[in-house]
Write a structure and sequence with these properties.
By secondary structure, the chain is an alpha+beta fold. Helices cover about 30% and strands about 30% of the residues. It has a six-stranded mixed β-sheet with strand order 6-7-8-3-9-10, sandwiched between helices. It has a five-stranded antiparallel β-sheet with strand order 13-17-14-15-16, with no helix packed on it. This is ABC transporter ATP-binding protein.
Length: about 350
């Protein structure tokens, strides 16, 4: 549905993004993920029409839209600040775009109320001023207003970032539910990895104006194509080449330079004096309690390499500081990268 082809975006002589290529399929929840300054919001703004590519094409349904006005692109926008009118009622905020288009009152009323029902806004809430609503309710109003004109595409630029952590988590499920019910192709910008993994059909990971990888959440997490994706998404332990040679002597690693493994792919047990394949002795340093699990921190006394493991503690893996611990690595889960 949306094709970004060899797009470059410049600010004066500065090239912010270059040679960006990806496709968004109809009905997808497609997330732009990356740290601050990575280019994710720049890419969204270019698709929405706030920025014009200096090279390349942006297409919707195979039609180049580089020179198309913002209002003619069929994109509803939800900004980080929501950009709602604080002196207007919820109803009037949602109806604003329809009134500008001079739709008749009956059409406006029907559209406002059917959208309000989808996002669980009551008739009483429709009559309230925006300033009387909670952050979560304001976010629902912003989405409803963006959808009032029946756009084909909904674009959201970090819409949850101003909310507290607990509310952000609860609203993720609501966002996905609304997107499915409205059946709208959604472009979503976030720096929150967990948010991206739980919401998205596919994710585009950006870093310093470069597109690092596009894939499903499972592909991005389990099969990162670059060192940046591996370290930015989730937690990873960096291993040395010599350590990998010890735990995986039959693995050909000569052409690789960097090695990582996720905490959940390392397990610990009591040192019984017997080391099997893919096992080493580490010293236990400390633990962090997360309610559902522990994170154990260990060190290899010889190389001084530190690792963390994700543990569901049992009688077989309770350790004291300084205790020698048997550590087993799932060597098939080690991520290998060249030239890093």
């Amino acid at each position: 549905m949306i094709n970004v082809e060899n797009v470059q975006i410049k600010y004066g002589d500065f090239i912010a993004m270059d040679e960006i290529n990806f496709e968004v399929k109809e009905g997808e929840f497609f997330t732009f993920l990356g740290p601050s300054g990575s280019g994710k919001s720049t890419m969204l703004r270019a698709i929405a029409g706030f920025l014009k590519p200096s090279k390349g094409d942006i297409k919707i349904h195979d039609k180049v839209i580089n020179d198309l006005e913002i209002e003619d692109r069929g994109i509803g926008m939800v900004f980080q600040s929501y950009a709602l009118f604080p002196s207007m009622s919820v109803y009037d905020n949602i109806a604003f775009g329809l009134k500008v288009e001079k739709k008749d009152k009956e059409f406006i009323d029907k559209r406002v109320r059917e959208l309000a029902k989808v996002v669980d806004l009551t008739d009483d809430q429709l009559e309230k001023n925006i300033s009387d609503l909670s952050g979560g309710q304001q976010q629902r109003v912003a989405i409803t207003r963006a959808m009032a004109k029946k756009p084909e595409i909904l674009a959201m630029d970090e819409p949850l970032s101003n909310l507290d952590a607990k509310l952000r988590k609860s609203l993720r499920g609501e966002l996905k539910k609304i997107q499915r019910e409205l059946n709208v192709t959604t472009l979503y910008v976030t720096h929150d990895q967990e948010e991206a993994l739980t919401l998205s059909n596919r994710i585009a990971v950006f870093s310093n104006g470069h597109l690092e990888q596009v894939g499903t959440p499972k592909e991005i997490y389990e099969n990162p194509l670059t060192e940046f994706v591996c370290t930015f998404i989730g937690d990873s332990n960096k291993l040395s080449k010599s350590l990998v040679s010890k735990i995986a002597p039959n693995k050909n690693i000569s052409e690789y330079d960097s090695f990582y493994i996720r905490p959940e792919h390392i397990s610990t047990s009591v040192n019984d004096g017997i080391l099997n394949e893919n096992e080493m002795i580490f010293e236990f340093e400390s633990e962090d309690y997360y309610g559902t699990h522990y994170i154990y921190h260990l060190i290899d006394k010889e190389s001084k390499i530190k690792i963390s493991t994700k543990e569901y503690r049992s009688e077989n893996n309770r350790f004291k500081k300084g205790e020698e611990v048997k550590v087993r690595f799932d060597i098939e889960k080690i991520h290998l990268f060249k030239g890093c």
